[in-house]
Amino acid sequence: MGQWAVIIPADRWADERLFHHDTVTVSAGATAVAADDEVLLVADGNVVALARAAKPHGDELVLTYLRRSFDNPLPAPTLTDGEITPVDPETFRRFATALGADPTGPHRPTWLVSVALPIEATTPAEAVRQFWSHVLELGPAELPTYVWPSGDELAMQAFVLGAEANQDPEEEDED
User: Fold this and answer.
1) CB–CB of 33/72 below 8 Å?
2) Is the CATH number 2.30.130 carried by domain 3-98?
3) pLDDT < 50 positions in the chain
4) How many CB atoms lie within 10 A of CB 7?
5) Which among 26, 32, 23, 21 has a CA at the least distance from the CA of 9?
6) What's residue 107's pLDDT?
7) pLDDT recorded at residue 83
8) Residue 49: in which H helix or E strand, if any?
9) pTM for this structure?
């Protein structure tokens, strides 16, 4: 079984940070990555995930996520030499171990996520239709999403484009 580092292109990395996907597809070209090889995913000079390669489809390589560290990536300046590069076993294990335990384990907290929009409508069903239309129209670039640990509403944070965003207009005026 081979061990590799694969660089995720910037546009694909932006999408991975916004939406939960089970797999990521990257251009593989003429690569030696085989099905069931282990892969460190690298973005912006950091290891962001551990994945397993599926059977290559032409010039495309499908990688299934095993562990993710999108919010706390691991600096990896030595793994940015090429789009797909082999990694020695010691380096690979060091990064794989640092990525942490199985994400499906019992240590995962529960988060509440909310989007609230004031909508004028004549019926609840019309309001719901307008809500989904606004969500599709605005999307993650413009629509703030609020997240907080279950049971701790005071810890609520706003996120836009997958990053924490200040939504207090009074604080923005102070800058």
Assistant:
1) no
2) yes
3) 101-106
4) 21
5) 26
6) 61
7) 83
8) strand 46-53
9) 0.72
State residue 38's pLDDT score. Answer: 93
- The string over 41-72, giving b where at least 16 C-beta atoms fall within 10 Å of a residue's C-beta and e elsewhere, is bbbeebbbbbbbbbeeeeeebbbebebbbeee
Task: Kindly state the DSSP code that residue 155 receives in the 8-state scheme.
Answer: G
Radius of gyration of the chain (CA): 20
Length of the chain: 175
Which residue matches tokens 């670039």?
Answer: 141
Domain boundaries, the chain: 3-98, 111-174
Token pair 């609520």 in the structure block, residue: 156
Answer yes or no: are the C-beta atoms of 143 and 160 closer than 8 Å.
Answer: yes
Total Cβ atoms within 10 A of residue 118? 5
Contact by Cβ (8 Å): 146, 116: yes
Q: Which two tokens stand for residue 103?
A: 């994400």
pLDDT of residue 101: 47
Residue whose token pair is 């995720």: 8
Residue pointed to by tokens 């207090």 = 168
Look at the block and give the residue holding tokens 């460190």. 40
Counting runs of H as helices and runs of E as strands, what totals does the chain give?
A: 4, 11
